[in-house]
Amino acid sequence: MQRSIRRQIGVATLDPSSDDYIDALKACFSGELAGTVLDATGNKSSMSRAVDLIRHGGKIVFIGLYIGELVIDDPTFHKKETTLLSSRNATREDFECVIELMAQGAISETMMKNQEFDFYTFGNQYQKNVVENKKLVKGVIKF
Predict the structure, then answer these.
(1) Whether 71 contacts 52, CB under 8 Å
(2) SS3 helix, strand, coil % of the chain, rounded to 5?
(3) What distance in Å separates the CA atoms of residue 7 and residue 60, rounded to the nearest whole number?
(4) 82 secondary structure, DSSP code
(5) Alpha-carbon torsion angle 26, 32, 36, 40, nearest 10
(6) Where are the domains of the chain?
(7) Could you tell me where the DSSP H helices lie in 1-118?
(8) What is the reported pLDDT for 5?
(9) Are the beta carbons of 42 and 66 closer than 8 angstroms?
(10) Pairwise CA distance, residues 5 & 107, whole Å
(11) I need a surface site. Which of 44, 93, 117, 119 has the fewest CB within 10 A?
(12) Coiled-coil stretches, from where to where (predicted)?
């Protein structure tokens, strides 16, 4: 997320390489670790450490694709009763193909997108708009 957008919406920015990263993370969540970690890096080290960043009962969502074997500390994973989710495993070539097809007008984002959500109110209606919404195919959060 660009710095200007982060400032505009008031999102905390943390440096994962800093010595006080875990403490800074906990400060964002009233002394607890994150309830959900979204990892879009595709980086082996980052993805392997995601379990260290969630609280008990937390979720990890892998969005970035790492090509290779990924190791997660199993005792920590189980102790925290972690939920692990992932997106489909699109590659750079897949995205480049989609971009080209969109540029040609062969496909558009409206083919699957059937709902838009306002960023500032989305969290208040998440259960209703996403979890319980049987008609949702692809939603976009607008800033």
Answers:
(1) no
(2) 40, 20, 35
(3) 25
(4) -
(5) 20
(6) 90-143
(7) 3-9, 21-28, 44-49, 74-79, 92-104
(8) 67
(9) yes
(10) 28
(11) 93
(12) none
**Close Cβ partners of 143 (under 8 Å, ≥ 6 residues apart):** 5, 9, 119
pLDDT in tens, 82-139: 999 988 767 788 889 989 999 998 888 788 788 899 888 888 888 888 888 888 888 8
Q: Residue 107's closest CA among 138, 130, 135?
A: 138
Span 20-35, pLDDT tens digits:
999 999 998 999 999 9
- Using the structure block, give the residue that is written with the tokens 């400060």: 27
d(CA 64, CA 83): 17
Neighbours of 69 (CB within 10 A): 6
Res. 2: pLDDT tops 80: no
Residue 38, H or E segment: strand 34-39
